[in-house]
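Figure 2 data, in text form.
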Amino acid sequence: MENESLLRLYLADPTTDADGNEIQPFLSTPELEQLLAGADDDIYGAAAEGWRIKAARAVELVNSTTDNSTFSLSDIHKHCMLMVDHFSDLSPGGGVGAQLVNVKLDSGSAGDDEGDDIVQG
């Protein structure tokens, strides 16, 4: 399995649904490539950084209730941060953090060329 596919698996970020239909992944292919390059192909470090991005993006979500299920923003953020810790522990370098200088994030909007920069120290 190539690193990009494995990273998508670690990030729970599929490109197809259970029926094989294409879906919009949470992180774009260029974003995954930047994560891998910034982590010097440390798959666990890239996964930790990907979960950090997912946690940061969780602030854009709102609490919702559907089909007797409630999704809480705080629950999503907590889960993301637990995954950051998990993959940071697996990474030989303890996660990407200082190695990843700049990730250009897709805005997710069609026709919107402006992304958000995340700068890690």
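Caption note: The chain has one domain: 3-119.
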